[in-house]
């Protein structure tokens, strides 16, 4: 069975964090000068859920949120976007939801992330054991979920349970150095995860990190496609991406956009790419739709609220002559 056939059920279990994002308002305002802020759902995994849901899919999030007003905000936002949260557990004590303060500006941009005592890292084996994996088309996770215990052990257990249920594993590298104890710990953990996953998406820096040499990232991506993964997408920012499978390799450009901020592109790309695959589109079409989603999100405020609907995505693609020609 092909990856497209496996994803055709269009129902995904997503592991990882939901948080709160703050954006200085109006756009262009520096955080240090801000008086007003715009709040919305954040967190890479929650953003991916929103992206997939707005493109016609269904998602169920597995994570922990703080048992306080911020955690409740996140739960309310999950409900707003139609994300199933039967496997989102509240945790008390000193654990807190992640908070990102993100400027809607390109020049001298600052994103400040608060992750001390992160509630989502408290996800444990009981949380992932409670999931009926056979209900889903695939499991999706990001590298952030692997950065600390007990979340790391639980994520790898979820990988095993999903494999037993016949689900493909989709992995967004999403390497955030500030979340890890050391680069060596991260490299070893990423290698273990990469060897287990069927679809791997990351940028050139992240693959270079996995390779232990930033000049060898593409070599690492090709190695993963040759040895374990069915699809690897090696993203290169403005240069587009290189998609690699065991039998083919092709380059794809980007849709030009008037970027308002540099954040949110990766989560949006993942949502657009997976939605395209689930709809039976070709691999190249799916990559291009992911690229279009990324361009839409960086041109608008927020991540979750900026994720396009099917109609918005189709209108964006129709209004553009196509992707740029990759080098």
Topology record:
Blueprint: H1 3-7, E1 11-15, E2 19-25, E3 36-42, H2 44-54, E4 58-66, H3 69-80, E5 84-91, E6 99-102, E7 111-114, H4 125-129, E8 138-142, H5 151-164, E9 169-172, H6 183-196, E10 199-203, H7 204-211, H8 217-227, E11 231-235, E12 241-244, E13 249-252, H9 265-278, H10 283-298, H11 310-319
Parallel strand pairs: 1-4, 1-8, 2-6, 4-5, 8-9, 9-10, 10-11
Antiparallel strand pairs: 2-3, 6-7, 11-12, 12-13
Helix pairs in contact: 2-9, 7-8, 9-10
General description of the model:
By secondary structure, this protein is α/β, with parallel strands linked by helices. The chain has a single domain (3-319), classed as 3-Layer(aba) Sandwich (UDP-N-acetylmuramoyl-L-alanine:D-glutamate ligase), CATH 3.40.1190.20. Helix content is 37%, strand content 22%. It has eleven helices and 13 strands. It has helices at 3-7, 44-54, 69-80, 125-129, 151-164, 183-196, 204-211, 217-227, 265-278, 283-298, 310-319; strands spanning 11-15, 19-25, 36-42, 58-66, 84-91, 99-102, 111-114, 138-142, 169-172, 199-203, 231-235, 241-244, 249-252. The strands form two sheets. A nine-stranded mixed sheet has the order 5-4-1-8-9-10-11-12-13, with helices on both faces. A four-stranded mixed sheet has the order 3-2-6-7. Helix 3 links the parallel strand 4 (58-66) and strand 5 (84-91). Helix 2 (44-54) crosses helix 9. It is globular and about 50 Å long. The model has no long low-confidence stretch (mean pLDDT 95).
């Amino acid at each position: 069975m092909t990856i497209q056939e496996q994803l055709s059920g269009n129902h995904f279990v997503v592991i990882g964090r939901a948080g709160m994002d703050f954006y200085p308002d109006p756009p262009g305002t520096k955080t240090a000068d801000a008086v007003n802020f715009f709040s919305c759902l954040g967190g890479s995994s929650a953003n991916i859920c929103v992206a997939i849901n707005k493109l016609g899919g269904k998602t169920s999030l597995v994570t922990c949120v703080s048992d306080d007003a911020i955690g409740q905000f996140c739960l309310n936002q999950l409900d707003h976007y139609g994300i199933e949260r039967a496997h989102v557990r509240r945790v008390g004590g000193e654990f807190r939801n992640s908070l990102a303060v993100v400027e809607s500006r390109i020049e001298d941009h600052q994103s400040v992330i608060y992750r001390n005592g992160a509630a989502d890292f408290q996800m444990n084996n009981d949380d992932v054991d409670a999931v009926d994996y056979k209900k889903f088309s695939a499991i999706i996770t990001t590298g952030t979920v692997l950065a600390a215990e007990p979340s790391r052990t639980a994520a790898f257990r979820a990988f095993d349970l999903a494999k037993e249920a016949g689900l493909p594993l989709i992995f967004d590298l999403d390497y955030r150095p500030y979340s890890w104890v050391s680069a060596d710990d991260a490299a070893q953990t990423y290698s273990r995860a990469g060897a287990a996953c069927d679809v791997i998406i990351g940028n050139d820096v992240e693959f270079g990190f996995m390779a232990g040499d930033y000049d060898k990232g593409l070599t690492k991506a090709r190695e993963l496609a040759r040895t374990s993964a069915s699809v690897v997408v090696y993203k290169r920012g403005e240069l587009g991406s290189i998609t690699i499978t065991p039998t083919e390799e092709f380059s794809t450009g980007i849709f030009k956009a008037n970027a308002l901020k540099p954040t949110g592109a990766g989560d949006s790309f993942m949502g657009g790419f997976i939605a395209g695959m689930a709809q039976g589109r070709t691999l190249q079409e799916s990559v291009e739709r992911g690229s279009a989603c990324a361009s839409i999100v960086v041109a608008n405020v927020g991540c979750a609220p900026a994720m396009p609907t099917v109609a918005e995505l189709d209108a964006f693609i129709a209004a553009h002559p196509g992707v740029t020609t990759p080098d």
